[in-house]
Write a structure and sequence with these properties.
alpha+beta, 1 helix, flat
């Protein structure tokens, strides 16, 4: 059976004060994968990059 894809809303971070990045907690990904059997998918925190239309 296929694993359900479960979205995790990412957060915006600035790494070393120069590199913008999207990130999500490891604990969230592990819980989705190991507890619910789903496949975690990080959703960018920037609304310009994500559209549901």
């Amino acid at each position: 059976m296929a694993r359900p894809v479960i979205g995790i809303i990412g957060n915006q971070y600035l790494i070393n004060d120069s590199y913008p990045a999207h990130a999500g907690g490891t604990m969230n990904s592990l819980a989705i994968s190991e507890v619910s059997g789903g496949m975690p998918l990080l959703i960018p925190a920037d609304p310009r990059l994500v559209s549901v239309d």
